[in-house]
């Protein structure tokens, strides 16, 4: 069943699906999926766009909570739900970080740092939970010789050439 797009939410979140009224016509057992595209954070550099597929009934519950004033909009609900789940599983995160060190937040790797590692004969094993940035001034050959492995739980920003050079090292 195709339902027209709602458009863009109050804080710039593009959302698909209809309001709760249109969803009442859908049988719950059919549970078609409606994608919701979200952008987290106030500025483009601080977010990653994702798509979440929700059934019409689940989306209807979200819309009901928004219409009752519990949440400002759909994205407010989604952000709150994500944060609540992260908090709920914080012990798992702490245990994982204790077992295998990982940098949390934003970590930037610039040309000088990678050149210093290469000059010392060291190769970096990069692990980041959040956003890892390999600066635009880092050439692919430097990234390739200075980085042994890279694991990013979140998002990696690097030039397409650097990403290609590191493709075999991405965990």
Automatic annotation (TrEMBL):
Q: Which GO terms describe its biological process?
A: regulation of DNA-templated transcription
Mark the transmembrane ranges.
none
Report the superkingdom from the record.
Answer: Bacteria
Enumerate the Pfam families for this protein: RHH_8
Q: What are the boundaries of the signal sequence? A: none
Which Gene3D superfamilies does the record cross-reference, listed alphabetically?
Met repressor-like (1.10.1220.10)
| Name of the protein described by the UniProt record | CopG family transcriptional regulator
User: Which organism encodes this protein?
Assistant: Methylorubrum populi
The beginning of the lineage is: Bacteria, Pseudomonadati, Pseudomonadota, Alphaproteobacteria, Hyphomicrobiales
